Amino acid sequence: MTLRRGALQEFYARAVQEPPRRRTRTTYYEEIDGFLELRIPADASVLDLGCGTGEGLTRLVPVGSKRKALGIDLSRIQIEEARRRHPHLSFEEGDVEDTERMASIAKAQGTFDAIVMVNLVGEVEDLWPLFRNLRAFCHQGTRIYLVYYNYL
User: pTM for the whole thing?
Assistant: First the structure.
């Protein structure tokens, strides 16, 4: 594990004890949720990379939904919290840049209709492994939704 990944894990381990960012920056996340809800069909399977505690995924796949959904995050503590908060969804710990881990998860979970990455690209050291690893989760009709904030 690189120094940066270790620092990210420590940061997100501490962040679990703070109010969720979705509650403190509601307008920002409401805009993102609305954008995704309009574009992802109600019956689509969803993979959320960098899912944190699963707040975004549960907005897309609410309790009672029969659709396939999976959240993946680097932080074990965030994943444990996501499982506690949203037992109706599936979550896996994994580094999106780790080809072996992503291949293992993809082999077990299969492909998805929609792949969501909200604010993930700024946390990744190298985008090439991330996008290369996405292929295992994609079928011909998979749509990728990459969202990242702009300081302008």
Answer: 0.87
